[in-house]
Here is the input.
Amino acid sequence: MNQFLNYLVPGIADGSVYALAALGLVLTYKTSGVFNFAHGALAATAAYVFYEGYVEQDWPWPVAFLLSLLLVGVIGGLLLERMASLLSSAPTVTTVVATVGLLVLLQSLMTAIYGAADKKSGDFLPTGGPTVGDVRISYGDMMVTGFCLAAAAGLFVFFDRTRMGKAMTAVVDDPNLLSLQKGNPSVVRRLSWVLGACFASTSGMLLAPKLGVSVNVLVLIVIAAYGAAAVGLFQNLPLTVGGAFVIGILVNYFPSQAQKTDSLFLQSLPRNIPFLVLLLVFLFVPARKLTERGVRNARRFKPPRQFSPPVTRGGMAALALLLIAVPHVVTDTDVTVYSGFLAYAIIFLSLGMLLYMSGMISLCHLGFAALGATTSGKLMTLGFFGWLPLIGDKTVSWPVAILIGGLVAVPFGAIVAIPAIRLAGIYVAVATFGFGILLQQAFYLAPVMFDNGALVQHPRPGTEFSVPGTSKRFEPVEGTTAGLFGIDFNNEKNYYYLALTVFFLMAAIVLIIRRSRLGALLRAMSDSGVALEAHGANTNVMRVAVFCLSAFMAGVGGGVLAGVTQSASGSPGGVFDYTTSLVFVAILGFCGRRPIVSPLLAAFAFAVVKIYPPFDSPTMIDYRGVIFGALAIFVAIAPALNLGRFLGPRGKERDGEDSGTGSTQWRERIDITPGQPITVRTDADLALVGGKERSS
Here is the structure.
C-alpha cells in the first residue's frame, strides 16, 4: 500500500497541473476552433513574470501571482482573442504559422530578458502536511488538486447549464447566428480566451517551484498536457481531467520499472507517456469523434485562387545560374553557410510539396532529416555491421549512404501518414508534432540513431575519418566512402556544388510530380478530398505516397546537412530539435507558394540572413526570434486585415486561400459562350480525365 501511495500521491499532484494546462487548451479550442501551439509559451511567460515579482522584487507571492495572472492571463488572453478572431476562417497552415510565431516570440523574448539559465522561484505554497504511511501529502498539493477539481466541475456546469456557456460552444461554428439570438460573439470569445490564458498562466506558476523557471522546460511540460486534452477529444472536460490524472500517475510509476534496464531508450519512454497517449488517440479513436471546430468548417467564404504560380524555363535557368555563381561571389568563409542553405532548401522543398501540393501539414520534418543524417553517417563510418548487425561490415559510399538514409525515413513517413488518412486539418498538425517530440525524446537515444546524444560522424567524400571507439582510420580511396570521382570534397566549394547537385535532383522530382497526373490529383485532393473520392480516386494511397516521398526528400536533406559540419547531433536545441520543425512551417508559410523559389527563400531566411548586418549584431542575435515571431503573426493575420494591397501579388494570393481544411466545395471555372455548351472544369475533373475539359 505504501509503495502504491509513493506513486499515487505525486501522480495526482502532477496530474492536477497537467489538467489545468489541458483545460485551458480545450477551452480555447472548444470555443474558437484555433489550436494554440503557444499555450506552453504562455505558461512559461507567466512563470517568468511571477519570478520577477516574487524573487527579484520581493513582493508577497499572492501579489506576484495576481500580477502575472493579470498581465498574461487577462491582457494576454484579450490579445489572443483578437488574433484568434482574425484567424477563425483561415486555413490550418495559417493558424499554425500565427501560433508558432507567438511561441517563438515569447520564447525568444524571455530568453533575451532573463538569459538561458534556469531561475529558481522557490516554493510559495505550504510544503508541510499529514503523513500517510511513508508518504507526506503536502497542503500545497492538496490545494492544487482541489482547485483543479473545482475548476473542472465549475466549467462543466458552466457549459452545461448557463446561457453564456452554451453561447461559447455556439460561437465557434456561427457567430452571426449567435448574434441573431441576442448574443454578443465578441464578448463570448474574449471570456473564453481570458479563461484559457488564465489556466495556462496558473499551470506555469505552479510548475515553476518543481521544475525551475525555464522557458524550454515549461513549454515542453505544458505540451505534455496535449495528451490529456486528446483523451478528452479536445472537447470533453471531465475526460480531460481524468486523462491528466492517469498520465500523471503513469509518469511517476513507470520510471521505477524502466530503471531496471540499462537501455537509455527504454528509460526515456516513461516521460514520453503523454505523447504516446496523444498518438494512440489519433491512431485508434474513431475519426467521427475528432471533428474540427470552427467557422471554416461550417462554410467556405472564398474559393482558392491558385495553388502555386507557374514555373517558367527562363526563370529556372536564371535561378540555376545564380546558384552556380554563389561560391564565386561570396567570401570563402561564407561558402559553408551556403552549403547548409542548400541542405535546408532540400528539406523545405519536401515540406512545400506536402503543404502546397497536397494540402497536408507536417510538424516533424526535422525528425525525418535526423533519420537520414544518422543512417547515412553510420553507414559511411560503421558500415552495415556497425549499424545493423549480421549484415556485413563494409562501409558504404556517400551517394549510396545518402540514398539509403532517405529510404529509411520512408516507413516513418508512412506511419505519420496514418493520422492524415483518418483525420484532417489541425489534428494532423498536432499528431505530427507529437510524433516529432516522441522521436526526439525517445528514438534519438536509440543505438541506431544518436545513442545518448553522441555525435554521429558524417564524413564527406574525399576526407579522412576515424571509427568511433576504435583506433581505425580510413584514408581517402577512390570508389569507397572516402572518395568520389577523385574529387576532394573537403574543399568547401566542391562540397557546395555537391549539395547543389543533390538540390537540383530533388527539385527535378518536385517539378516532375507537379506536372504529372499525380500532381494534378494531389492538388485536387487539397481542394476537396471528398469530391475527388466521389470520382473514384483513392485519396488514402495518395496521402501515404506524398508523405513517404516527402520523408525521403527530408532524409536526403538531413544527410547533406550533416555533411556540412561532418557530424550530426541530437542534443536538445540543436539542428534537429523538434521546435525547428515548427519554425520551418512558419517560415515557409510567409515565403509564398512557389514550388522551387519559396523553399530557397525560406532556407535563405533561416540559414543565411543571420550572417549579414544588421542581423549579426549582438542585439539582433538576442531579439532575432522576437522579430521573426512578430513577422509570422503579421503575415498570418494580414489577409483578415485587408492588407493584401500592401503585400503585393503574393499577399493577395494568400487572401482567402484554403489549404487542407477539409472543405467539400470544389473550385470551378466556368466558360460561357453564347450558343455554345457551358464548359465546367474542376481540379478533380481535370485530374481524372488527364487534363481534358468536360462540357454540359
